[in-house]
Structures are given as C-alpha cells and as structure tokens.
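Narrative progress, year one. The postdoctoral researcher (J.K.) led the effort to move from monomer predictions toward full complexes, under supervision of the PI. The following entry was the first complex the group processed end to end, covering 832 residues in total.
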Amino acid sequence: MREEVLTMGKRARQAAHHMAKVGDVHKRKALEHMALNIEGAEAAIREANDKDIRAAVAKGLPAAKVDRLRLDAKVLEEMACGLKEVARLSDPVGEITRMWTRPNGLRVGRMRIPLGVIGIIYESRPNVTVDAAALCIKAGNAVILRGGSEAFHSNRCLADILRRSLVETGLPEDAVQLVGTTDREAVLDLLKLEECIDVMIPRGGEDLIRFVAENARMPVLKHYKGVCHVFVDDEADPDMAMRICMNAKVQRPGVCNAMETLLVHAGIAQRFLPPMAEAFRAAGVELRGCERTRRIVADCAQAVEEDWYAEYLDLILAIRVVNDMEEAIEHITRYGSQHTEAIVTGNFERAHRFLQEVQSSLVLVNASTRFNDGFQLGLGAEIGISTSRLHAFGPMGVEELTTTKFIALGNGQLRS
Amino acid sequence: MREEVLTMGKRARQAAHHMAKVGDVHKRKALEHMALNIEGAEAAIREANDKDIRAAVAKGLPAAKVDRLRLDAKVLEEMACGLKEVARLSDPVGEITRMWTRPNGLRVGRMRIPLGVIGIIYESRPNVTVDAAALCIKAGNAVILRGGSEAFHSNRCLADILRRSLVETGLPEDAVQLVGTTDREAVLDLLKLEECIDVMIPRGGEDLIRFVAENARMPVLKHYKGVCHVFVDDEADPDMAMRICMNAKVQRPGVCNAMETLLVHAGIAQRFLPPMAEAFRAAGVELRGCERTRRIVADCAQAVEEDWYAEYLDLILAIRVVNDMEEAIEHITRYGSQHTEAIVTGNFERAHRFLQEVQSSLVLVNASTRFNDGFQLGLGAEIGISTSRLHAFGPMGVEELTTTKFIALGNGQLRS
C-alpha cells in the first residue's frame, strides 16, 4: 500500500505543477465539462450508488446514515450546479495582493499561487468527492481524495467521471485521484507523505479529525466542534433577539453553527426569557438553565458544568443569565470553541467591543449564528470551516486553497 | 515537568486573552521600556552571558559557536535598537482587511487578530529571546520560549528583564515565558500542548526542525533548507548578471538565501562563464560544473547528482548550462527547496513567465537572492522564513503572527 500511495503522491505533485500554470478559461471549461458529464452519467452513478446503499442496508446502518449516502436526481443536479458555480468564481491565482517599492528601487509584491497538493480525508457523503475536487481545481491545485468505505462505489464512479473530464479538456487526470482502498493503513500512509501533500483537510466526525491531527506530518486544516453562543444584551430589541435566537437554535439544529448556549443579560432576563422559553418549547426545544434562569423559567432543567461545554447538535439549549457583557465574554472564552458567537444589542459601544474582543472565527452583531458558512458569507463555496487559527480561521473558500509568494522586480539591486 | 509546562501553557493562554485587547500605544511603551531596561542591565546580562561562555569553552565548543553566544556591547545595542524598531512598526491587530455587503444587507468583513500563544524553540543565539518576543508582543500574542542549553543563563537573564518590563508597564508578565529547563522531555511536552499553544516556530538546524515537525500536535511554521538558484538568461546584461551572481554567492555564503546553484542559458554560456568563473575563483569559490560547463571553464570539478540538491552554506557553487528557461525551471522544480530563485534577463516575456511559474517563497527578476529577508523586503523585522506554504510562505513579519476572523454586522438577518 505504502508504494501505491507514494506513487499517487508523486503523480499529484506532477499534476500540481501543471495545474498551477493553467489559465482560468481552461479551468472553467474543465469544471463545466465535469458538470455535463455528471448529468450525462446519471444511470451509471445511480447504479454504483445502489451498490453502496444495498451494502449499507445489509450492514444494518441507521436510516439517517443510509440517507446521507443516497445520490438521487436532486443531489446529482445540485452537484452539477455546484460545479458550474465554482467554474464561475473569480480565479484567485496570479492576483498580486500588494506591491510596494523599497528605498533601493526594488519593487516587492505578493502574488497568489496554489497551495499545491491537497489531501482530503472524509466520511460518508459522496458529494464531497465532487464539491471538494472542484474547489481544489479552481484554485489550481491537485487533490488526493480518500472517502469512507460506505460510499466506496459512488466515490469511485464520481472520481472516474472527474478524471475523464480532465483528460477530455486537456488537463492532467492526476489532478484528481481517489485512494483505491478504504483501510486505515492507507490513511496513515497518506499522513506521512509530507513531501507530496502540502495540506491535509479532514472532514467528518471528531474521532477522524483527531486521528488526522495527531498523525499528520503535513499541516492540517481542521474543524473541531461548534459550541456557538448568542448573547442577548439588556439593550437588545427583544423581538429581534427572539427571532435571531429561534433561527440560531431551530432552523437546523444538527449543524456546527447552530446556537448551543444562550447568554442573557440580567437586566432583560425577566422580560425576555419567559416568552423566549415558551417559543422554544413550542418548537420542541429542551431547556437547561442556570439557577437564575430557573427562577424565571418554570420547569427548566438544571444545567450542569458539562452543559456549558456541550455541542448538542440537537433540540437542546443551555441558558445562562449573566450580569453584564464582560461575564458573557468570560463565559464564551472559557467554554466556547471559537466557532461563532453573536451579540444582540442596540448599544454601539458594546457591539463594538464584542466584535473586537470575542476571538471566534465569526463574530456577529444582530444576526443569526447560522451565517457561518462560505456561501452565506459570500465566499461562493466552502471546503470546510477552520477553527484553528493558522492559515484560515472560519469558512474556507477558493482563496483559502491558495497561498502567496513574494515577488521582486529589480534592475540589478545587490545586498550590501 | 509535564505539570510545569502545562501550567506555563495555561498562564500563556490567560496572558494572550489580555494581550489581544491591548492598544498600540501601550504595546509601544512596553517595547521601548524593554529596550531601556536592557540598556540599563548591561552588567547583569554580561555576567550571565559569561557563565554561558565559560561553560561553552569548558565543553570544548568550536570557536564559531562560542562566538555566536556572545552578548557584547554591540549585540546588546542591536537588541535595544531592534526593540525600538519593532515598537514603531504599525500595529496589525484590528485592521479590517476587507468588507463587503451581502444581498440580505449583512455587512461581512475580515478583521486581523493575534494568533494567540506562540511557541518558539530555538538553539544557540540568545538574541532570539528578545527579537522573537518583541514581534510576538507587537502582534498581541503571548510567547513561550525554549532556548538552547548553551545560552541558558543569558536567556534566563534576558527573559527576566522582558517580564519585569511588562509588569512595569502594566502588562501581564506571562506574555513572555521561558521554559526553565533545557532537557528534551520538556520540548516533547510543549509539542503536545495543542490546547494552549496555537503555533510552534522552530529555529535552528534541520534536526531540530524535523523533530518539531514530526512531534508537534499544533501547526508548525518551519524553514528547511535554502537551495537557491540564479538563472542567467541569454538576454541578460552580462555585467549585471556577474554582479548579481557574485553578490548572491559571496556576500554571505553561510546563510539560507545565498545562491547554491547557477543555471546559465547555453546561448550566453561561452561569453558569460569564463569571466564569471575567474571572478568566483578570485573570491575563493570552488566550482562544480556539469559537462557543458566543464568544456567552457577549465579545471572545473565535475558536479554529481548530489551537488544539485546541496545547500553548501559555503564558498562552493554548482553550475549547470541549460538549453533554455524551461530547462532551468525544470531543474529548479526538481532540485530546489522553494526558497529563493532569481532570473537575470532583459526579456520581458521570460521575466514575466519566470515570475509566474517558479513557485518559491521569493522569485526575483534582476536582483540578488540575498534579498529574501524580512528587513530587506520591507516587513520591518522577521521571525523566520517559512518554506512550507500554509499560512506564510517566505519571510514572516509581524503580520504573519496574526490571523483574520470574520465579522458580520446585521440588523436582524436570519437564515432561511
């Protein structure tokens, strides 16, 4: 296996050298061609997908998991649309982000270039195969994909279509490669290929991400959990605060940017919490409050220390009443995951300070935490959300799949 | 030990929360105060330094190594000047690098924030203690320093002065901490502190850097070797090319941005190489050439495969004659270290293509490779040169010790 993975790595490196020089017109054509080929291969894709589905059912996988594997007509159409959208994004490669002149006349600048070879290790959903590859290609990279065993046939079929599309548009097929086995050994081999893979992006459960982070020799862009907070200040518009909290908790509770803990200023708690709690209960949300919350909200369960750390990903909410914004920020700093926090307030000074002092990947004023997403923030697409601070912090779009090199234009400058 | 390192990590995290909120006036004052305190403590510093020097001599360290340990009046003055220069750099923290408005009216931007806690593991030179700490502080971070055993007393004395200066200017002393022992166990413990240290920067020999890269759980900003190339095109001005090559090789041969391999276009080799070789020999440079070079340059040694990979860090130069720029770029891609490459040419098209296609941390046209340095490129100061592509590629200044978070300003936006 080691040998096979090494060969893939070397091929990826070669392909990356080629891809770095490809112009945007050519990359757009390839991505649009991928979309056409996926639309044209619906029967073959669904046949491969059926194999995975049948195996998953036979293995006794829970229905929700089986469902996430399914490539029906709607998912395939979304895939093709996604490819066309990525094709239309503006090309980050070659952009000169800044340029300045030194006293000796040397003109120095920074130019955006692809990262090189990107490794993506993911579980379950086969659409990642297409979405992730598209973004890597757009940014001029080569990609090595290693999907989960449950989606093996689907991933294989999709990767073959992407590779064929590259060849048909005159690009190197090895710009997209899928690891041919699903055993864990292959993952370990990949994680040691620091000379061939410039960055590894794990996508999946916390176990997978920790495994990758602990074993990778190359840099890892990773996303642990999202314990997101909304702080309702005493100068908040209560109606706006209720709408934002409801949206942040209920609109899609199973995702990383959903609110998990609500912090309420003591000055508004008496007014705000009773109707808010009623609305949450009507929406089926289980509430777990601090002592002060329980004095205001009848029949609220007692929150224990673990609740403040919890990423429920479910219709459960922890609630705490705090004396002021300082206490709210302290709570966020202590228990939060640096993912997404929002303040609802009409007070300029506090909005300003919350924005400055809360060090999460997205900090919002008067808007729902659910906006922490590449599409929603205007990046066009995303390959994940980084909660570590190096290179990228927050949603990663096509630009985060590039880096910058320095360039210098001289007329004979020497160092003295 | 594990316990002591963990305590340092937690203190650093606390200090980092504080430092992130400190305004630039305050940070400047602290850095200028450090400079004053170093100037005022010359006797104590030299006393501590003498202990290290005596131990190094007793241990039989080579004279060059002993010399690098020495903190004489000149080095101390440079340290103080460095502190004042860093104090005057513009503060990157809080800068909003971009802002845009989404169709729903949400205003989204990116704001520069400190990285948090930075770990620096270094060898030998005690001035790193001061230079590195200053840059970390300026960028609003806390830093944990782990210096080499040879400079133990010097580092301890300097770190104490920095910590005292922080306290005297009302900042948390734990923004600068020095690991109190020099055993390797402590390094391993540090490398596992991913929850407390956001990034690790190793500075020293290749062994140290590999050890850190292989064992760190947090991201690492690292610098392997610099196998730097100059390509002399057939449309180069021969005099300019000679001056640039001489500067790149001879001005300071022992550093990472010195030229190690010279690539010469076949169309200019007959004219260019004989006087160039003569000039190199006059400067004491040993030449190792390819077959074609040896046909032009008398008494040139034969370069073998390893020479193309070599970082000599000495007055030795590998020379290869290539048919065209494509062959030069292929050579650089195959044997280079992505550090620094220069082209000397009067041809616009080739200059343009070389700039685009060579993927090194600094690519120059008509200037010496020796400019790959934070001061020379105008970053004000540097904490090292990164040859890996994530987060930073090339010299790292104060801005590279920050990251950006997303901010969003709304008036009640919800996700639908």
